[in-house]
Amino acid sequence: MLPLARALRSLAPAAVAREGPLLAWLSSARSASSAAAPPEYEMPSVTWGVIQGRKERLVSRVLALDFLRSAGVSDPAGELEAVELPSSLEVLQERLDFLLRLGLSTDDLSDYPLLLACSLRKNVIPVLSYLEKLGVTRARLAAFVRAYPACLHASVAVDLSPVVKALRGLDVDRQDIPRVLERYPDVLGLKPDGTISTSVAYLVGIVGVAPRDIGPMVTHYPFFLGMRVGTKIKPLCDYITSLGLPMRILARILEKRPYILGYDLEEMVKPNVEALLSFGIQKEALPLVIAQYPTILGLPLKAKLAAQQYFFNLKLQIDPDGFARAVEKLPQLVSLNQNVILKPVEFLRGRGISNEDVARMVVRCPQLLLQRIELMKNSLYFFKSEMKRPMSELLEYPEYFTYSLESRIKPRYMRVTSKGIRCSLDWFLNCSDLRFEERMRGDFIEGDAPGPSFTMGGKLQMPGSQLVSDDDNEDTDDEVLYRRTVML
């Protein structure tokens, strides 16, 4: 054994150089611990010790477990009973010291004692070196191992590298790989040709998610890669589309908010839909509510709706039915801070508008509650000083406050005034630029037919389902619904 030990010692410096800084840690610890030992015991931990019989192995295991207990590492589930431990306490001490220097505690090792069954040279150091190479900082290695200790049992070439290559194949940027791994370390335990490929294939092939958006989805919410299609993804998508939301709109939503795939269908999504219905939201309005505010499916919604409904009734004098109509038009109301809601309401009341009129304005156009007071002041000043119109028009068309004063209200009003046209606010504001130009070129003013209904942030719905858009393109109903979403 002595010639072999000397040969191994002579190769140690070269091995350290090849393995990198992590092995230097191990080498320095071994040198310190072996300085006082007799030369014949200065063997690196590349060997497990002498070949032992059954009795000797039992004795060695008892000694190893007693050593770990004395070091503060417990094994309540008896996991170490079924694995092979080194016969040398020196090797076991070496592993323990290394893991503690890494940043793990004895409590962490007690939670997952199988870490002490991992060879430093064959498992721990190659895996940690690979993670560092990918961009996981050394300061984060302990947290990474704590979150997914099974990674130290893996083979870099067989288990880890194929997963990283699969992530790159999904268009995850190289610099985002550490972020993905740190957010979801368990992804290293998935099979690229198993759960990962199945989930991606369903989202792209069935739901209609654009392949180019899979990479950003993985970066922002990698957890869906580990979700089973049959028990998690498909039932959720089927239920949401059964409410009337087109599949292609659901695909667009998932591209921007993949975390929706993590909502529990039975415990979260279905109860929230039932809560919306119970508070007066019309069933036919559910698709638009979800399209505008998909996060509403994952909120503690019943409590939020109850609190906001009570607040609207108490402070804004809006009854439950009016509250439901407002939520249909602006579902973000359920999460809007009550102090934010009160500011525009108090501004309007302070200008002499009665509580009843303010309530009607809010129900007709709940987007008023999102406006900045400074902008509302400027718009109101222009309305009174330049336009000199009666306040009754403003009460009938509160959407006036949602338009930009400089880019829409002023220039269009000047055009209308220059042509001597007397018209309603709705007529010259609630239309696309193209339609406005057509009206300015017209020889007569359209009759008193109702103008396009207001939906903030998207297309305008004309009576008779005639669509008005800036480019006047023919779009499908799905595209109209998607463009009517409100992005906050």
TrEMBL record:
Record keywords, A-Z: Transcription, Transcription regulation, Transcription termination, Transit peptide
The UniProt record lists the keyword Transit peptide: yes
Keyword Transcription regulation: yes
InterPro entries according to UniProt: MTERF, MTERF_sf
Any one GO BP annotation for this protein: DNA-templated transcription termination
Pfam families assigned to the protein according to its UniProt record, in alphabetical order: mTERF
Family affiliation: Belongs to the mTERF family.
PANTHER family: CGI-12 PROTEIN-RELATED, EXPRESSED PROTEIN
Name of protein: Transcription termination factor MTERF4, chloroplastic
Native source species: Urochloa decumbens
Upper classification of the organism: Eukaryota, Viridiplantae, Streptophyta, Embryophyta, Tracheophyta
